TrEMBL record, chain A:
The keyword Cytoplasm applies. GO terms for molecular function: lipid binding. SMART domains: BAR. It is found in: Cytoplasm, Cytoskeleton. Gene3D superfamilies: Arfaptin homology (AH) domain/BAR domain. This is Amphiphysin-like protein. GO terms for biological process: actin cortical patch localization; endocytosis; plasma membrane tubulation. Keywords: Cytoplasm, Cytoskeleton.
From TrEMBL, chain B:
Residues 17-268 form the BAR domain. SMART domains: BAR, SH3. Keywords: Coiled coil, SH3 domain. This is Amphiphysin. It holds the Pfam family BAR. SUPFAM superfamilies: BAR/IMD domain-like, SH3-domain. Residues 165-192 form a coiled coil. Residues 287-297, 305-314 have a biased composition (Low complexity).
Length: 260, 433
């Protein structure tokens, strides 16, 4: 920290203490405080929005990659056990295609229409928070200098030049504070007013991407059925597949080789 | 391990050793070896199937939950933001169509969650449980392999013992007796080994056949379950349309149309660009970096004013950079210090009363260049002052100190140089010349 910065930090810290103990009167701007609260609300919702937007994309990717891994595993099982109907190959091809297509056709649009805009919106908060921080510093400076003037009025100094100098300092500090305070009070509402037009288009995009994902996946996976005996679908619906699995496992359990 | 098991282990140990160092012929069997490698791969595959099925389901759950969370928060965005405690909306309604759409989409998601819940149970009952069962059966059959292996060791040991005795041309009665016993043991070992060997060779093909019979329906089951999940989600979304959403248009095109120039408008609000040199992660944003486009706005406002102090800031010591404040803030901050009249410091007064306790709050490193009072002036030390840390300047009574930075008052810290060293010293310890 520079010499000036150090001195300011010290001054502000002591003013903070005196404000708390009531030694220095605090300037309160209800209008600004209200805008700051509104800003905090928006900040919180937007950041949660960003988090869920990111989580959605991760889940989508995890889903298609898990599908591929499962299909690969099944295919290896098939290879091991010598089943030769090739259904597992068709299935594997289908989920691999879905995995690639999801990245190609959904990942990019999702970033462009959902994730990036929301992240960009959230990046504004850093600037505004910086401005708020600076505004609060200037307020502390102003409060301290005003207090100093008041003290000189109450207890005039021997040096007659001191009071006008203090008043000049106070005015400078006040102007600096007012400038930023007014700017924030005027511009935070502008940002808040833009929130709906800014973020709303991402909602529709998300729903559409979800819809496209389900439709594409369904259509592509359904194609694998043509390589299967139609009876299998029937068996699945009637629960025969389950009982077949159960029976087979039972036969396996009865083998001597697993009797230990 | 049982006592018996332990005894057996001790007896078998030398044989294991012999086999390991290759001094003995193993009863190698290609069928068994092939089976063993298949077991290992089956075990791995089964485990993988298990964990990936779980991951698959988890990602479906996540996908729906993140959307629910998204809807919840976009709804907050649509609602009026008042700043009154409790979020009381007063007379405002917010973006009503959007709020309704949230409600509708949330219901869709919750219904989908409900609809696919049975599929989740099916993953459990139709896939994971049979897979686990299969895995446990594989493990059991592996025990049989171990058993066979042990019996094989016994047999090898007995064979060796027998050969040793048989090879002897002359045997005394005691050895004859022993030969009988060894022959007996050998026969028994042979029988036991053959039993397990036969068992495995007979049943292994059956096991593999059954395995393949169970894998196929499990796969089919998984496939239809998965298909059902997508079908459910797809049809549910297609059937219950949300009027607010135009599902027919292209995703990106429609987004662009809806967003229009909003982004540019927002980014023309000066406060949004407050942090001009912001270390924003937006360097790679496709439609041009926010930072560079933004510097036009409020950037110039601050840059112009702070350009005078930029040279000093560039030479600031390293520690400066680790400060919380971003560079822009620092620059204008320093400027404030230069512009503003000297500020009195109460803290300084407190400090100088007992400067020795200063160690807890070390003064900052000295700036490289004096910013004010550039005309050199000096003072003379009235007392000795010992430096408590590297930032402070040790002075001795009578030292003539070059003042680099005068404190606001005698009660403040001053920055000075003596004997080529720079540092802070209490202003009350010196007499200005």
């Amino acid at each position: 920290m520079s010499w000036g910065g150090f001195k300011k930090a010290v001054n502000r810290a002591s003013t903070q203490v005196m404000l708390k103990s009531g030694h220095v009167e605090q300037t309160v701007d209800r209008e600004f405080e209200n805008e700051e609260r509104r800003f905090r609300t928006l900040e919180q919702s937007s950041e949660k929005l960003q988090k869920s937007a990111r989580g959605y994309l991760d889940a989508l990717r995890a889903m298609t990659s898990a599908q591929v891994r499962i299909a690969e595993t099944i295919d290896l099982f098939y290879g091991d056990s010598g089943i030769r109907d090739n259904v597992s190959k068709h299935y594997l091809a289908a989920v691999k295609e879905l995995d690639v297509d999801t990245v190609k056709e959904l990942d990019e649009p999702y970033r462009e229409t959902v994730l990036d805009p929301i992240t960009r919106f959230c990046s504004y908060f850093g600037d505004i928070n910086e401005a708020i921080k600076k505004r609060n510093h200037r307020l502390l400076d102003y409060d301290r200098l005003r207090h100093k003037t008041l003290k000189l009025v109450d207890k005039p100094s021997k040096d007659p030049a001191k009071l006008p100098a203090a008043e000049r300092d106070e005015k400078v500090a006040q102007d600096r504070y007012d400038e930023l305070n007014d700017q924030l009070s005027a511009e935070i509402p502008q940002l808040i007013d833009f929130r709906v037009p800014y973020l709303d288009p991402s909602f529709e995009a998300l729903v559409k991407i979800q819809m496209k994902y389900c439709t594409d996946s369904y259509n592509r996976l359904a194609e694998v059925q043509q390589f299967m005996d139609p009876q299998i679908r029937e068996n699945y619906a009637t629960g025969q597949i389950d009982s077949h699995i159960e029976n087979t496992l039972m036969q396996m359990r009865e083998l001597q080789i697993v009797s230990l | 391990m049982s006592w018996k098991g332990f005894q057996k282990g001790v007896v078998r140990a030398p044989q294991v050793l012999k086999n390991n160092i290759g001094s003995h012929n193993e009863y190698k069997d290609p069928i068994i070896e092939d089976a063993e490698s298949r077991f290992t791969s089956m075990e791995n595959l089964t485990k993988r199937l298990h964990s990936e099925s779980k991951r698959f389901w988890q990602s479906i759950t996540d996908m729906l939950n993140h959307q629910l969370e998204f809807v919840k928060n976009i709804e907050q965005v649509y609602r009026p933001i008042t700043g009154r405690p409790g979020g009381d909306a007063g007379d405002e309604d917010g973006h009503v169509e959007g709020i309704n759409a949230c409600e509708q989409y949330r219901n869709q998601l919750l219904q989908i969650q409900e609809l696919i819940r049975p599929e989740h149970e099916m993953i459990e009952t139709r896939i994971l449980r049979p897979v686990d069962e299969l895995l446990s059966l594989i493990k059991k059959s592996q025990k049989m392999f171990v058993k066979r292996e042990h019996k094989l060791l016994d047999l090898e040991r007995q064979t060796e013992a027998l050969h040793k005795l048989q090879d002897k041309t002359e045997r005394n009665p005691k050895q004859e007796e022993k030969l009988n016993k060894v022959e007996n043991d050998y026969e028994m070992a042979k029988e036991q080994f053959s039993y397990y060997d036969e068992l495995i060779k007979n049943e292994l093909p059956k096991l593999f056949k059954l395995e393949s019979e169970v894998i196929e329906p499990m796969f089919q089951s998984f496939y239809f379950m998965q298909l059902n999940i997508y079908y459910t989600m797809h049809t549910h979304m297609a059937e219950s349309k949300i009027p607010y959403m135009d599902m027919e248009t292209d995703i990106i095109e429609s987004f662009m149309k809806k967003q229009g120039t909003t982004r540019q408008e927002v980014e023309s609000i000066p406060i949004v660009q407050f942090n001009t040199n912001a270390t924003s992660s937006f360097g790679a944003y496709p439609s041009g970096s926010r930072v560079s486009s933004g510097s036009k706005m409020s950037g110039d406002r601050f840059n112009d004013r702070s350009s005078t102090s930029s040279s000093t800031s560039a030479e600031r010591p390293e520690r400066e950079r680790s400060d919380d404040n971003p560079p822009t803030y620092e620059q204008s901050n320093q400027l404030e210090g230069a512009d503003a009249p000297p500020l009195p410091s109460r803290m300084g007064a407190v400090k100088s009363e007992k400067p020795k306790d200063e160690g807890t709050t070390p003064p900052p490193p000295p700036p490289r260049k004096p910013e004010r009072h550039s005309a050199p002036s000096t003072c003379t030390a009235l007392y000795d002052y010992e430096a408590n840390n590297a930032n402070e300047l040790a002075i001795h009574k009578g030292d003539v100190i070059e003042i680099l930075e005068r404190g606001d008052s005698r009660d403040d810290w001053w920055l000075g140089r003596v004997n080529g060293k720079e540092g802070f010293f209490p202003g009350s310890y010196v007499d200005t010349n």
